[in-house]
Amino acid sequence: MSWFSLPPVERFVSWGMPYEWAWGVATVVDILLIALPLMLGVAMIIYADRKIWAAMALRRGPNVVGPFGLLQSFADGLKVFLQETIIPSAANKGLFLLAPIITFTVALMAWAVIPFNSGAVLGNINVGLLYVLAISSLGVYGVVIAGWASNSKYPFFSAMRASAQMISYEVSIGFILICVVLWAGSFNLNDIVKAQKDHIWIINGFVANPLLFPIWVMFLISGMAETARAPFDLTEAESELVAGYQTEYSSMAFALYWLGEYANVLLMCALNATLFWGGYLPPLDIPILYWIPGVVWLLGKILFFFFIFSWVKATVPRYRYDQLMRLGWKIFLPLSLVFVFLISGYLMATGHFA
Amino acid sequence: MIQAFAFYLFATLMLFSGAVTIFSRNPVHSVLWLILAFFNAAGLMVLVGAEFIAMLLVIVYVGAVAVLFLFVVMMLDIDFAELRAGFVRNFPLGLLLAVVLFVELFVGLVVDNAGGLAIGKTSGAAAQGALSNTEAIGALLYTRYLFLFEAAGVILLVAMIGAIVLTHRQRSGVRGQNVAKQNARRPDEATVNMQPEIGKGVSL
C-alpha cells in the first residue's frame, strides 16, 4: 500500500548528509516526483480530452502521431517549442513574458498539499485547504497581467472578464469549503480524507451525505467556472474576443497557458476527489479494496471527474456573461450560505463538536 | 539555518518591493510590486508560526483586494506629466503625513521597550498549548473578543449596504431577463399557427 511514499529526510540523513542538505535534496526530489508525472499527465489528458471530445462529435480525433495518436501532445509541444516567440512592439515586455510563467507556476503550486496516499503529501500543513484557496486566487493574475501587458483591446476585455468571474466564484467556493471543513473538523487535506472513512454506512466520501451532496454539485460547477472551462470559458470566447487573453501569445508562452489551464483542471478534479469522494480511500470501506494502492484510487477518481469536465465541454453551450454572473451571485452564493447555516446547525444539534 | 535564510530572503524582498512600489513610475507596476510585498509578508507570517494569518493575507489581500486595485489602476488613463505636477504640489502634505507616521511608529516602539501593555500577550485559550492556529484564533474570537468580532462584521455589512445604496440606480425602460418566466414558457404559448390570406399579412 505504501509503495508511493515520498522519500523522507531521514533517509538522506542516514546516508551521511547534514540535515539542511538532506532537507533541501528531499524537498527537490519530492517536488520532481509530483511535478514530472503531473506534466506527463497533462500531456496525456489533453490527448484524452481531444479524443473524448471527438468521440462525442462522432469524429476520430488525433490518430496520426504514434499508436492511436498517443504522441499528439508531444508533437504539438515540439512544434510550439520550435516556433518564434513574438512580442508585440506595443506590449509591456517584462510583464508580457511574466504572465504565462505565473499561470503555469501557480497551477503547479497547489499540488503541494494534495495527499496521494495516507501521509504521502509534500506539504502536510494544518491550513492545507486555505493554501489551496490562496493559490487558486492567484491564478487570476496570469490572465489579468497578460491582458494588460498585451496592450491590445481583446485581451484586455478578456482580463476584465476573468478577474470578475474568478472573484465571483471564489466567494461561493469559500462557503462550500467551509461546509467540508465543518464536517471534517480540520483544514488539513489528509485529515479531511480520513474523516470521510465510512462516512455513511460503509461508503467512503462526503458525497453520500444528503446534506453535502448538493454542496458537491455546486463545487463541481464552480470549479468549472473557476478554471474558466466550458461552459464558462468566456475569457477566451472565440466568437467575441478572438482568443481572449492569449490573443497576442505565440510559441512556448502560449503553450505555458495551455499546460497551466489543464493542470488547473486536473487540480479541480483532484480537489473534487479529495474533498467529497474520499481521495485516496476506496469508494467502499471493504478490506479487500484496500489492497489496491491509494494513489490508484485517487488517479481513477481524477480521471472520472476529468471525463465529466470533458463531457460538459463537448455538450454544453457557452454561458452568456450576465448569466454567468447571475449564477454566481444570485444562486450559488445564497445557496451555499444556506448550506453553511444548515450544516453547522445540524452539526451543533447532533453534538458533532462536543 | 533554513529558517534564517528564508527570513532574510522574505524580509529583503519585502522591503525591496515595498520601496519599488513607491518609486515605480507605472501605477500598474506599483500594484504588482505591492502584491509581491504582501506575498513576502505572508511568508514572514508562516515563519513566525502564524500560518492561518498568512493564508488569510494571501486570500484576502492578494486574491481579492489587490485584484480590484489592479482592475481600477489598469483602466486609468495615465498622464505622467500631470502625475509629477501633482507630486510637487502635494509634497508638503505627504511629508507631513510621513513624519506623523514615523513619529507614531517611533513612539510606539519606545513605549513598548519601556514595558508594554499585555494586549498582545498570549492568554486564555491560545496559551493552552496543543491547539492549532485556526482553533486558537477561533477560540479567542468567539469568546473573549466576541463583541468586537461581531461589531466588525456589522460595520462591514453597513459599509457594503452603503456602497450598494450609493451606486445602485433604478433605470426605467430596461428590459431585464426573467429566467423563471423564460423557463416556464411552453411551445404552445410561444408559437401560433396562422393561415394568412394572400396580401393580408399577419398581425402579431
Briefly, what is this?
With 354 residues, chain A is mainly alpha-helical. Chain A has 12 helices and no strands.
What is the chain-wise order of helices and strands of chain B?
A: HHHHHHHH
Biggest β-sheet description of chain A: none
Tell me the strand percentage band of chain B.
Answer: under 5%
Total strands of chain B = 0
Describe what this molecule looks like in 3D.
- The complex is a heterodimer of chains A (354) and B (204).
- With 354 residues, chain A is mainly α.
- Chain A has 12 helices and no strands.
- In chain A, helix 2 packs parallel to helix 11, helix 3 packs antiparallel against helix 10 and helix 5 runs antiparallel to helix 6.
- Chain A is globular.
- Chain B is an all-alpha fold and 204 residues long.
- Chain B has 2 domains: 113 residues, Four Helix Bundle (Hemerythrin (Met), subunit A); 47 residues, no CATH class.
- The longest helix of chain B has 34 residues.
- The radius of gyration of chain B is 28 Å and the shape is elongated.
- The N and C termini of chain B lie far apart (82 Å).
- Chains A and B meet through helix 2, helix 5 and helix 6 of A and helix 2 and helix 3 of B.
Give the key terms:
heterodimer, A: 354 residues, mainly alpha, B: 204 residues, Four Helix Bundle (Hemerythrin (Met), subunit A), 8 helices, 0% strand
Secondary structure layout plus pairing:
The complex is a heterodimer of chains A (354) and B (204).
Chain A: H1 9-14, H2 19-56, H3 72-82, H4 93-109, H5 128-149, H6 153-184, H7 189-195, H8 213-226, H9 238-241, H10 251-276, H11 294-315, H12 321-349
Helix pairs in contact in A: 2-10, 2-11, 3-10, 4-5, 4-10, 5-6, 6-7, 6-8, 6-12, 8-10, 8-12, 10-11
Chain B: H1 2-23, H2 27-47, H3 51-74, H4 80-113, H5 133-141, H6 146-167, H7 179-184, H8 187-190
Helix pairs in contact in B: 1-2, 2-3
